[in-house]
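User: quick one, fold this
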Amino acid sequence: MAEAMRGLKRTHRCGELSLAHAGETVTVMGWVQKQRNKGGIIFVDLRDRSGLLQIIFEESDCGGENFAKAEKMRSEFVVAVVGTVEKRAGAVNENLATGEIEIRAKETRILSEAETPPFPIEADSRTKEELRLKYRYLDLRRPDLQRNLILRSAITANIRKFLTEEGFLEIETPILGKSTPEGARDYLVPSRVHPGTFYGLPQSPQLFKQLLMCSGYDRYFQIAKCFRDEDLRADRQPEFTQVDMELSFVDVEDVIDVNERLIQFVCRTGSGTSSSAHPLDRCNEPLWFRQTGYPFRHGTHGCIGDGKGLRLRRICFRFGAGRFRQGNQRQRAGNYAAEENRCPCGYGKGLRRKRAGLSLHWRRRELQVFFRKVYDGRRTDGIG
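Assistant:
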């Protein structure tokens, strides 16, 4: 039966304790990761968002009642433990931040019991996504997902810190507004007060930030929620968050300078890493970003966005006796006739190839131009 935590107050998170706290009496609370009964002594791994901590229950230290509670503990029980921090008598677990210590329990309370979870609460789970989403509250307890959310929180806090110190004002703009033409379709919300009319959820705060610039707020930013009714992409979903900013009385170089320094600051401090230990600080030169124009990006990478080291080149094929299925990413038979920026067989002209009884005729509008990815001068497998 669950007990109340009345009278108890958590003094530390599990991952905050170390040898420096040896001899102190602490109160920790969290979820049971694992319980091991060795007969006369019970080991419990207690988990919270900061990490794992080993608890030891011995009847001579905690009494028969508390020892019986420890025997009942199972995975995902929520418990509170009062005990003394000690150096581990056995082997040190170097894989844990708290691997040198353990808590010798004196008092414990079971705050909530739990049934056996449908999948193990552990990092790098191979459980099917459908099951994980069904029990999302359990999935979010996994250490890798918690690390992602903690990292996002740290990055967001540092973005706010940097831009505030640069003289930006964080101003929140409305979510319910008038629909305006942008790059995608709007999500619409019907109005109860004005039947037959709709609010449009913002695809970006474009109108509002322009209004703010006209109103004299010369440096504005917000971490804005945006909504776009469009097909899914690798880097976007219908609801997403973006860092939105606007500056007045500046030129292009000023905007680039602020954003370069923002990225540098976030990379150094976003994960909580001290700047003195960060790899960026071993660079003797200031951080800078290569600037390229549209012809370079579009001609070399085939897109306006960052090519991330992937270069694209036109190629054409000479078919063998096998088949080449359009849309498939593998060239089933034959080999490459050439790989260079201009198709040697005459781009746009009629093309005939006869081999092993296979005859193909590509006219200008049907000629397919494929691209092969080259990373750092080395060919990759497959066709992009």
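User: anything notable?
Assistant: The CA atoms of residues 76 and 115 lie 8 Å apart.
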